[in-house]
Every structure is written in structure tokens, then in C-alpha cells.
Predict the structure.
Amino acid sequence: MITCKNVQVIYQNNGTALDDICFSLKGPTITGVIGPNGAGKSTLLKAILAITPHTGEISINGQPAKKQLKQIAYVEQKSAVDFTFPITVKECVSLGTYPEVGLFKTLKRKNWADVELALRTVRMEEFANRQISELSGGQFQRVLLARCLVQKADYIFLDEPFVGIDAISEQIIMETLRRLKNAGKTILIVHHDLSKVREYFDQLIILNKRLVASGRTNHVFQKEALVRAYGENIFVDEVNKNDRKLY
């Protein structure tokens, strides 16, 4: 379980990124973090990961989050990753073993077997010896997910994983994430495409610097919460009957 109590992030210029964030998230789950640009979505992940300084309390399974970081696998936005770094696909995925194996230590046969399995899971095994610079955006995102798989963490954080990727890669990633949830993992995804929210997420956290709503998707993904987060001009399309969608 992830619990945030009165979490606040203030930048050096005194701009508030997050203010008084309180929620509890119990897994297994695939939870979306949504909100307008500048709402603090990525900042929330980085606060939990102790990358961004914050006040308030963040705990994982009842322990301070900073003591549980090995239990979290994190994929940041692709724009923050150096595609030109001279490393092969399988070497990139093998970086996920380092929390267990340690830096600068030789990987064992078991570790490389985990790498191979992870690449097969995301259907990238045939690219194992390619340089990461040769991959498309969707292929590289699948490689980053494979790196999470070999880490064998209980929590997986993904920051905008579907931006600029092809439909096949998005489908493969979601299929993999659903299997991980069924295996007991807790997955937190910063997401911007509201049309996919009901399909992808069983729980939601809606932000606009403050917490707008959190809970089951079918409870909180409603017009009132979306207007509070995005403003009155958000496009709302209502489909009647039991499958009403808002996006």
C-alpha cells in the first residue's frame, strides 16, 4: 500500500507543485494519474521515489518510502532518456538486475536468463543485440518495461509511457501490465489520454496541484471531477446506457 499524508512540494522559486496531497492506494492495481499540464503528476511519482524533496509523509507497506525504494521500478519519460548512449538492448534491460546484483558486478547465467525472458515477454527478443539508438519509440518503451520486469519489484511507476509510440507497442505494454497486476503488482501510470482511462485503469488519482479525487475509476472519472481538474472547457462526451464514458 502507498500512503501519502499532507505531501507538499515547493520549488525554489516558491512555486507550489503539490499541496496537501493525501491518499492511500492499495494494490494490486493499475492506477492512472491524470490532470492538466503542470498539475504535478510527474512530481508525485518523484516525491514517492525521494527524487524530489517534499514535506509530509509517504509510506509504502507501512514503512517510510525512502526505505522501500528497491521495491519500486521506475520508467521516466522517454524525453529524459539518452537514446544515443552506446548500449545494446539486452545490456539496457540487464540494468534492472543491479538493485539485486550490485553495480560493476558480473551477471550470472540466471540474470541473463531473466533478461531473455523479459525481452520475450515484451516481444523484443529479436532485437537483443541491437543498439538502443536503432529502436523506434515504441520499441524502446517496451525495452524499458522489460528492464522493470528483471528488477522484480512489487511497484512499477511509469511516466507517460504511451506518448509517441505505435499502437502495437501500446497494446503489448498494456497486456504485460495487466498480467503483472494479476501477479500482484501495483502499477502507477502518469497518463494524458482521457479516452483510454476507463479501458486502462481500475483506479485513478486526479490532480491539479491539489488532490481532486482518488478511488475506483468508475466512481471518480465523472464530469464534476474532470471540470474541477481541467476547467469548464474540457470536452465531455456522454454515451448513454451503462457504459457512459467521459473524455
Q: What stands out?
A: The mean pLDDT is 89. The two ends are 29 Å apart (CA to CA). The longest strand covers residues 16-25.
